[in-house]
Design a protein that fits this description.
By secondary structure, the chain is mainly beta. The chain has strands spanning 24-32, 35-42, 53-60, 68-75, 90-94, 97-103, 109-114, 122-126, 128-129, 132-133, 140-144, 147-152, 158-161, 188-197, 200-207, 222-228, 236-243, 257-261, 264-271, 281-289, 296-297, 323-325, 329-332, 337-342, 346-355, 358-368, 372-378, 381-388, 391-401, 404-413, 421-430.
């Protein structure tokens, strides 16, 4: 990872909430002690899905904006039976040890252990059923009332209970088709995460469900959820928790889970960057969960992440935009990050932004290939109607804002069919009276 200084200032806690040079997908959050830990797969910039290593990140419960990286926790070199890519993991604390459940691109799954939640994890062994290795991806594990439930699979979700060795499934407990992507079912694609939401068992999963399709076939950009009174179901699909469509024009999949921290519920998920299915980054949103019924209110991708009140002064980089449109996207460059793919009518959005009434100055750093018009909207109101001249440099615009909590939308205009500009950084300062 490049030195963070190369990327400029990054306000803590905004989405994506890890340092800009980190690409972590498939995040499973777990609270151990006085910290929340994030376990996920590790994408490489401009690469495909995942890589040959895992890294663990954590933050103190009393400051969820202060995330640190603990380094490499496990690599494929620690797997004695395979040299494949490491896909999505999960973690469990059991009888004084921490267990990392992992899967590989060849369809095998395993578990490793450590005395510390951040690893390193060692003693890897395969997950076995009836004396044979299981096949599938995306393990999830939940310990509840003396049982350790294990789910895995793509398109057809399987569930069973682990023995005390945590690498053997009890044959009599294994069930097929807990969720599926068959017509009339729950639209299950992959990425199951078994949790409790109040008294209900809740399965979070990447979903193909769409009203336009027979419950399958859509891009699995949604994290849907299904509820049941018992761990094995039957599960009823209830709705969507979060959909990352719009975070990048080429968004393809999603994977994550829900967790209650300090009395608040959050959904951790990922979104693509680089106008690709890959280069995925960890994101988070606050969510509302009815702990009696288990019903979850759908959230929208936002900029603020763990920051309760997003101020104009927080906005520094187009990377923190929660939505791109018209073909615009953000990508890594040799000198930092830039919004690219900007053509006539395209742009990006930060939301929700809390403005105090007053006058402000917007500073926009970029490089224009052609004469570029800039329209900035605060909610539905056109706040700036300006122009960016050809060339690289700093552009300043003064505007007035009422006291409000609105989305801040940047739209660029110019000659159709031309890539107009690249935007490197932004700054909004309130003018002192």
């Amino acid at each position: 990872m490049k030195n963070q200084k190369e990327y400029g200032e990054q306000p803590k806690g905004l989405n994506p909430f890890l340092p800009f040079g980190i690409y972590t997908a498939d995040g499973e959050p777990k609270v151990f002690g006085n910290r929340v830990y994030l376990y996920g797969s590790n994408d490489l910039f401009d690469g495909g899905y995942c890589s040959g290593e895992y890294r663990v990140y954590s933050a103190p419960l009393n400051d969820l904006t202060d995330w640190v990286q603990h380094g490499v926790s496990f690599t494929v070199d620690d797997v004695p039976w395979s040299n494949a890519v490491l896909y999505a993991p999960d973690a469990l604390f059991h009888n004084g040890k921490y267990y990392l459940f992992f899967c590989l691109s060849d369809g095998t799954e395993g578990v490793a252990e450590s005395d510390r939640p951040e690893g390193p994890f060692t003693n890897a062994r395969q997950i076995m059923l009836n004396g044979k290795p299981i096949e599938g991806i995306d393990p999830s594990v939940l310990e509840c009332e003396g049982h350790i439930y294990y789910t895995w699979g793509q398109f057809n979700l399987r569930m069973g209970e682990l023995c005390e060795d945590l690498c053997t499934l009890k044959p009599e407990t294994v069930r097929e088709r807990i969720l599926t992507n068959e017509d009339g079912a729950q639209g299950f694609h992959e990425g199951s995460s078994l949790r409790k939401a109040g008294d209900k068992f809740c399965l979070i999963y990447a979903s193909e469900y769409s009203p336009e399709y027979p419950n399958s076939g859509a891009r699995p950009t949604k994290l849907d959820y299904a509820l049941a009174a018992t761990p094995y179901g039957p599960y009823e699909r209830m709705g969507t928790v979060i959909d990352n469509t719009g975070c990048d024009p080429s968004s393809w999949n999603n994977h994550g889970s829900i967790i209650k921290i300090n009395g608040e519920w959050f959904v951790f998920y990922h979104a693509s960057s680089n106008n690709s299915r890959f280069s995925r980054r960890a994101r988070v949103e606050r969510i509302e969960v009815d702990e009696t019924s288990g019903v979850i209110k759908q959230a929208k991708p936002a900029t603020n992440g763990f920051v309760e009140k997003l101020l104009p002064s927080h906005i520094k980089s187009p990377l923190n935009a929660c939505r791109f449109y018209g073909g615009a996207y953000v990508t890594e460059t040799q000198s930092g990050f830039a919004a690219k793919g900007i053509t006539n009518g395209s742009g990006f959005v930060f939301s929700p932004v809390d403005f105090e009434k007053g006058n402000y100055i917007l500073t926009l750093n970029g490089s224009q290939n052609a004469e570029t018009g800039l329209a900035v909207y605060l909610g539905e109101k056109l706040t700036i109607n300006g122009a960016l001249p050809v060339g690289s440099g700093t552009n300043r615009f003064e505007f007035a804002a009422p006291a409000c909590r609105e989305e801040l939308r940047f739209e660029f205009n110019g000659k159709s069919g031309t890539e107009l500009c690249e935007i490197y950084s932004l700054n909004i300062e309130k003018i002192k009276p």
